[in-house]
Amino acid sequence: MEHKIVKRRALGNPRRGWKQENFILSTFSPTIVSSKIIKGLRPATGYSEITRRAVKTCVEAGFNLLELGWASEEMSADTLAASDELGVGVVYQDLWRFGGMGHTSFAKAPVTKETIKAVIAETKKHKSCIGYYIWDEPYLPEILAETRKEMDWFEEELPTDLFLTLAIPSYNPAFTWQNGEFAPYVRRFLDTVDPALLSLDYYPVGDEYPMERYPSEKQVDSENQLDVSLLWCDLGLLHKLSREYGIPMWFYYQGYNLHKAPIDFTDEMVRAMMNAGALHGAKALQQYTAYESVVDLDGGHGPLFDIHREMTSFYHAVGNTLMALDCRRVIHDDALLPGCPYIADMRTDMSESELLCGKLPFRVSISESADTEGNLYLMVLNRDFETAKTVTLDLKKPSRLYRVSPADGTQSIAAENTNKLTVDLIAGEMAIFRVQDAAEAPFTVEYVLEK
Questions:
Q1: Averaged confidence pLDDT in the chain
Q2: Cα dihedral 242, 243, 249, 251 in deg (nearest 10)
Q3: Cα separation, 421 vs 87, whole angstroms
Q4: What is the CA 356 to chain-centroid distance, rounded?
């Protein structure tokens, strides 16, 4: 059987210097973050040692990028030193000197070009520093402009580094699906900041905001699961706009029990949410957050270490293929957000499928993608985070199916001359297939980055 080598290109905003060469698995912070950092709180002793252990744990969990979104100078310095030794990339932040979060800057002095140059002079001594975290969830017009200004100043000095920011999700009070302001806000974010990539966070399990669900009185629980979450609207918009603007899509998924959930936060939820991002074409999966999840309070293996190690192993295997694909459409079964007006423009009807016919089974979503040579791929997601299932899909024409191996990313024939695709999926699992006309000669595909 012929084995074809297909070249793929690095991805990125043509107006920015940074380009993405490989699939990225990141965490927002390897150690103590959130209000504990902002309020200046930290362990009384052993803080540096905890940070260094936490970095090692994140590397063991399979992350290839550490983001320092809300970091202090001390935490950032310790993370850089440990990352230099362990060979993992860092997106640096010192919240007290540049950038900010939401509508707030915590900088102790006005941010100037000289501020940026000083930060670069200090941090570029570290080989692990590959970029800078500019602003977390900017949304006010003046903050969007400040984010753009600081990003441009960094890029003047370091034209090919990564400068990271992200949009605020739709369950914020100001820009929601319900008031019609969310999609215009994301476009304003893109037009003003012109980021290297489009990233957004969404943490649906246990969220107490009614605007996060449809209908609003429903909960993400064992009965409804994620079917009532507007997560799927945000992901649909993210997919749509990343294609329209020609930039990579990244996605922050919920990596621990962030809110007061009506049910336990489980490994299967993590699996389902990570796969939901990739189903929509994400080229990076960003975990929020390692502390008290992948990493325990002392920097060792936390309660969700094993599931992240499982999932990063999967994406290290299939990531090269995913980087070569353009996600053309996402299709859900009828159980997802029935009657919801906000998802109408974010989903595709089954009649528009290039590969499938009939109806999707309960709690199954699929996406159809293609590489630059027209090879077609089908991703099949079991959205159910409690139940395994055997999924059978009807193909439009006799096809040859190749499974993309979850172990090493290679392709092998799964079925010949078939009108059906059948796959066993555990809770939250996704499988990737290449679909070829049965009348064509068989061949496998391998992707190589074009330098």
A1: 94
A2: 70
A3: 41
A4: 26
Mean pLDDT throughout 265-274? Answer: 97
Cβ proximity of 269 and 254 under 8 Å: yes
Which fold would CATH assign to domain 326-449? Immunoglobulin-like (2.60.40)
* Residue labelled with tokens 């109806």: 359
260 alpha-carbon distance from chain centroid = 23
User: By C-alpha distance, which of 225, 124, 226, 233 is closest to 176?
Assistant: 233
Contact (Cβ atoms closer than 8 angstroms) between residue 274 and residue 294: no
Helices and strands (DSSP H and E) totals, the chain = 9, 18
Gap between the Cα atoms of 98 and 115, Å rounded:
8
Fold of 2-323: TIM Barrel (3.20.20)
Q: In whole angstroms, give the CA distance from residue 223 to residue 216.
A: 15
User: Half-sphere exposure of residue 255, counting CA atoms within 13 Å on the CB side?
Assistant: 34
- The verdict on pTM exceeding 0.85 is yes
In the chain, domain spans: 2-323, 326-449
